[in-house]
Structures are given as structure tokens and as C-alpha cells.
Amino acid sequence: QLAGRWFLVGMASRCSYLAEHGHQLEATTVMVTIPDRQSLAISTFRKLDGMCWEIRQRYLPAQAPGRFLLRGHGHGSKVDVVVGEADPSSFAIFYYQKGRSVSIKLYGRTSQVSDTIMDKFEQHIRSMGLSEDVTYYFPTYGFCNSADEFHILD
């Protein structure tokens, strides 16, 4: 159900990088495939220094439906991924937890979502103790459709 093309619409996070660089966000698209009926293969397309990059990740199935594990490099670098709410035809809200920090991302099937979906996203943000000052919205234009460079995160 989650397979296909998504647009990153918004994100809430206390990440210090976002706080410093939130004004430089680039339009971001995500292609989701489900290669083995369990894990999610994620290809994120975004611009960096004017070039389109593809970042590949694999979300591995965790103990319950809608829960995944994203393994990073090094000790303690795993990220728990949970589908918080989704209507596969229009939107998906994902939670990403690494240690004690949580980020929430809103993906849409289109680059702009309805006010109703935006309200749902804001409810999820508040329920996690985050606020508008750590919420960032992504541009709705200037998308990459393919990559000039590849960067693979295993």
C-alpha cells in the first residue's frame, strides 16, 4: 500500500542541523518499493549543491505491523520507524526515533496536502511534545526526478 512516489511535505524535529539550516530545505521526493513483502526500500531524491542525489535506505520489518528498523553505521545508530497514520492514497505520517529523540515526517502523494491532513500532522506533532518552532515545511517545486549522483546508506 505504501509503494510508489511520495513527496516530503513537512517534518517536526529538534535536530540542531534543521534548526540552523531549515531555511535551505530542498524539495524532496521518495520512491517506496517493497522488494520482499516485508521491508521497505526507500529511495530519497533531493538536491544538494544544485545536483540531484539519490539516497537509498532499507527499512527492515520489526516486531509489529507498521514498525520498521533502520540500521545506521556504528553503535547505537539504529532508528525505530513507525507508521503513525496513513491513507495510502493521500498521506502517511512516520515517526522516527533514535535514542530519546523523535522526529515526525509527513509524506503526501502530491506536494501539497489538504488542510485536514495538515491538521492531523499538527495533532501528531503536539502529541509528541513538539511544537511549531521545530516544524519545517518543504518547497513544493524544484523536484529531482532522477539522480545526478548516488549515495547509498546501507
3D architecture notes:
GO terms for molecular function: complement binding. This is CO8G protein. By secondary structure, this protein is mostly beta strands. About 10% of the residues lie in helices and about 45% in strands. The protein contains two helices and ten strands; from the N terminus they run βαβββββββαββ. The chain has helices at about 15-20, 115-125, and strands at about 5-10, 30-35, 40-50, 50-60, 65-70, 80-85, 90-100, 100-110, 135, 150. An eight-stranded antiparallel β-barrel has the order 1-2-3-4-5-6-7-8. A hairpin with a 6-residue loop joins β2 (about 30-35) and β3 (about 40-50). The longest helix is centred in the last third of the chain and has 13 residues, at about 115-125. The chain is globular and about 35 Å long.
Write out key terms for the chains shown.
154 residues; mainly beta; Lipocalin; 8-stranded antiparallel β-barrel; signal
Count of DSSP helices? 2
Helical content (DSSP H or I, runs of 4+): 10-25%
Would you tell me the overall average pLDDT?
A: 90
CATH structural fold name: Lipocalin
Query: What order do the SSEs take from the amino end to the carboxyl end, as H and E?
Result: EHEEEEEEEHEE
CATH class: Mainly Beta
Q: Largest sheet at a glance?
A: 8 strands, antiparallel, barrel
Query: Rg from C-alpha positions?
Result: 15 Å
GO molecular function: complement binding
Domain Lipocalin/cytosolic fatty-acid binding: 3-138
Protein name: CO8G protein
Keywords: Disulfide bond, Secreted, Signal
